[in-house]
């Protein structure tokens, strides 16, 4: 694939991703993953996804950069990543303007009436998923839900979770500091 | 945060705001593993708790809007915050900051994959990753709890929030499905309320 086709492909993916990058994996599998005429083998693809999930930053950008590089080197990465972010700002700005314009309409009021509490549920669900991945030892990458029998409590991670909860809830501790401290403690304790 | 109604960043010239936006997002994206919600929670901490540039109300609006618009949550929230603070330039600066660390890190990994793949498989690195994820779980949970009073204000709100939480964590529905459900339920409830109000007004 050329950098330009990678760019267009990731513009398309980002436009199809509602509610975050969760849809990216099935989309990519359908388009690119498979036996040879297809550009990515299943093994390589699963390695790309696991590396993307354990490295910092937005998972979608990690995958775009990785797939782009596999296909067309540096410029492939650049094309895929630019394509992935192109629509973000225009769509967000358009959405905010539309919501302000029809502020008192049934659709906009209804939208907020449903989405405000849903955001609360969704963000706590995200917290639960991170909790499961760390404290309960769920497998990374998380293509599929973990079975209860596979989970076991990591007490060191549970301690770090509790300490972070108190520090973040009660103090203005610097986040960078906290994450570095957690990483160092984890390197020794969470094995 | 001061008592003044003028936001704290108003005194800064635009280029300083852009630089601050870029740097804040660069730092977050370079450190926070786990994607959209983790980055969003870190951004709330940076811009509400530390800098006082945004209020909790802003965060609620940002959350609802950026989750509904298609695209990458991390970039959508960066665009929202950046636009709020310094228009289009601010949005560009924040999105660039959110993208650069990933781009550079993955570029390095992709060009020298074998040794870095070993690095990520090392027990100490996996332990560090697990601990950082635990801290991020706490950070996202704190963000959620701080949002509660602003997001869940009605009885039907409690029901919608509970349905979304359990559908994702227990039944493993995907978030887009729950977002579609919530928007549909909200519009339906609002429409029903209006019809009722009109009827009562007629009497």
Task: Count every beta strand of chain B, where a strand is a DSSP E run of 2 or more residues.
Answer: 0
The largest chain-to-chain contact, stated as pair and per-chain residue counts, equals: A-B, 100 and 119 residues
Tell me, what's the shape of chain A? globular
Sheet with the most strands, sense and barrel status of chain B? none
Percent helix range of chain B: over 70%
Order of helices and strands of chain B: HHHHHHHH
Helix proportion of chain A: over 70%
Mean pLDDT over the residues of chain A: 85
Radius of gyration of chain A: 20 Å
Question: Beta-strand level of the residues of chain B, as a percent range?
Answer: under 5%
First-residue to last-residue Cα separation of chain B: 49 Å
Distance between the termini of chain A: 41 Å
Number of helices of chain B: 8
* Biggest sheet descriptor of chain A: none
Roughly what fraction of the amino acids of chain A lie in strands?
under 5%
Tally of distinct domains of chain B: 2
**Low-confidence residue ranges of chain B:** none
Question: Which spans of chain A have pLDDT < 50 for at least 5 consecutive residues?
Answer: none
Count of beta strands of chain A = 0
């Amino acid at each position: 694939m050329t950098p330009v086709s990678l760019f267009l492909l990731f513009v398309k993916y980002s436009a199809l991703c509602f509610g975050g990058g969760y849809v990216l994996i099935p989309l990519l599998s359908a388009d690119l993953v498979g036996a040879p005429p297809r550009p990515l083998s299943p093994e390589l693809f699963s390695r790309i996804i696991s590396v993307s999930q354990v490295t910092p930053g937005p998972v979608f950008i990690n995958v775009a950069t990785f797939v782009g590089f596999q296909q067309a080197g540096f410029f492939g990465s650049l094309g895929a990543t630019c394509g992935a972010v192109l629509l973000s700002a225009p769509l967000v700005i358009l959405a905010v303007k539309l919501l302000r314009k029809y502020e008192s309409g049934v659709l906009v009021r209804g939208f907020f009436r449903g989405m405000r509490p849903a955001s609360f549920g969704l963000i706590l669900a995200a917290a639960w998923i991170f909790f499961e991945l760390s404290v309960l030892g769920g497998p990374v990458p998380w293509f599929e839900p973990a079975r209860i029998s596979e989970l076991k409590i990591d007490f060191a991670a549970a301690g770090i979770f509790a300490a972070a909860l108190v520090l973040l809830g009660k103090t203005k501790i610097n986040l960078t500091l906290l994450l570095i401290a957690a990483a160092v403690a984890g390197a020794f304790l969470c094995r | 945060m001061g008592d003044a109604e003028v936001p704290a960043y108003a005194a800064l010239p635009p280029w300083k705001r852009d630089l601050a936006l870029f740097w804040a997002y660069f730092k977050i994206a370079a450190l926070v593993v786990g994607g959209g919600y983790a980055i969003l929670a870190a951004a709330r901490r940076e811009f509400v708790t530390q800098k006082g540039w945004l209020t909790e109300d802003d965060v609620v609006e940002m959350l609802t809007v950026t989750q509904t618009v298609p695209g990458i949550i991390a970039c959508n929230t960066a665009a929202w915050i950046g636009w709020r603070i310094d228009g289009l330039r601010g949005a560009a600066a924040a999105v660039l900051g959110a993208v650069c660390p990933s781009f550079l890190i993955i570029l390095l990994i992709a060009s020298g994959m074998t040794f870095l793949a070993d690095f990520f498989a090392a027990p100490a690195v996996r332990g560090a990753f697990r601990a950082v994820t635990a801290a991020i779980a706490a950070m996202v949970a704190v963000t959620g709890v701080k949002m509660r009073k602003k997001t869940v204000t009605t009885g039907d709100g409690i029901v919608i929030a509970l349905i979304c939480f359990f559908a994702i964590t227990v039944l493993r529905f995907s978030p887009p499905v729950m977002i579609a459900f919530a928007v549909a339920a909200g519009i339906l409830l609002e429409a029903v309320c209006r019809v009722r109000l009109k009827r009562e007004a007629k009497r």
